[in-house]
Amino acid sequence: MSTALTRVRSACDEMTRAGGPIAVAQLAAHQHCSTRQLQRDFADVLGITPRHFGQALRTDHTRAALRSSGSVLDAAFAAGYGSVRGFYEEAAQRLGMTPSDYAAGAPELVLLWSVTATPVGDVIAVASPRGLASVRIGNATDLEDEMRREFPNARLDRDDAAMSDVMSALGALAAGGTAPELPVDVHGTAFQARVWSALREIPAGETRTYSQVAEAIGSASSVRAVARACATNRVALAIPCHRVVRADGSLAGYRWGLAVKESLLASESV
Q: Is the pTM here over 0.70, yes or no?
């Protein structure tokens, strides 16, 4: 194991135990290196800064605390925030809504959704005013149940007419055709955003390896992190993670099944 990887893993473990970000100077002192060296190690191994990693951990704790606590104030301190103001300023940005709305299951949040049959299965799409928030492939009944679980109190309106252009575009993509680039409303780390943006640059009918995607975002050693970012893509087809394969050309994993991935690639190659 390389020295850089050892330092990054140890620093990540330290932040995981703390449940959030730790000052880079403190982390570097524990790893017996300079802050500049540790920042460089994180960029090479994970493609993000130590602070971004710590913030992602704290966001996970925030979600759990909001779901389990009846009080936003209790959740703020349980998640490690030093002030309620800081909690609202950072958490609202990373959750995509105010903490109180998230804790309440997103009441008043209006999401439109629709479903269409495609050659690879049913495709269900959920859209906020900013763009696609979720695109799933599978069985319509199961997908609708999954869609409702995360935001049980949101207002989910099925509107096939309003979503017709979006569903036509997704149907075309599922059949291996082309469509205008669809706006998306997804939230992730800075590194995930870079990966997802790179995926949208892969032309239909072509594939890239995880290593090539890592190189494209300027973080050649972050192959595993690229694979994780592909796995966490919530808007199938719109962000074409199915176009990423292993170095030997094999398909690797795909959230919606290897048969779906194989079918999508075969249709696009034609």
A: no
